[in-house]
Request: fold
Amino acid sequence: MSSEESDDGGEGPAEASLSRVGAGLSSIAAQLPELGRLTGLTRLCLHGNNIARLDDGGLSALGRLRELNLSSNLLERGLAALAPLTSLTALDLSANKLSDVSGLGPLARSLAALNLSYNFLADADGLAELQGPAAALASLPSPDAPTR
Reply:
C-alpha cells in the first residue's frame, strides 16, 4: 500500500486517496479489483500507466470520487465510462491519445477542472456537452492547447 492510500470502505476518514503512479497498469478492473470496495475514495491517481480503455467497469463504483488523474496513459476514447462519477470536480486526461472527448456530458454539473493538454484534439467536438447554465467548468479547455 502506498503512503497516500486509505482503505476506508466508505466508513473511515472523509478523505481517502489511492495512487498507483507508473505501476504498469493496463486494465483498471483486472489489476485493481479492490476499487469496487473503496466506495469512499475521493482521489485516485493512475498517472503514467498503460491504460487504454475505461469501459471495463473498474471505476463505476466510485461515486464519491472528486479527483481523478489519468494523465500519461494510452486513452483514445471511451470517456462515457466516467459518467457514473457524478461527484468528480477535477479530471486530468493530459498526455493521452484522445482525439474525441464526447461522453463527458454527465459530468457537466460537477466538473470544475479539466486538463486535456497534450492529446490529439483537432477541435472542440465533445466539449459542447460541458457547456450550459448549470455547467461547473469556468472555461472550456482549448483545442489549441499543446498537442503531440
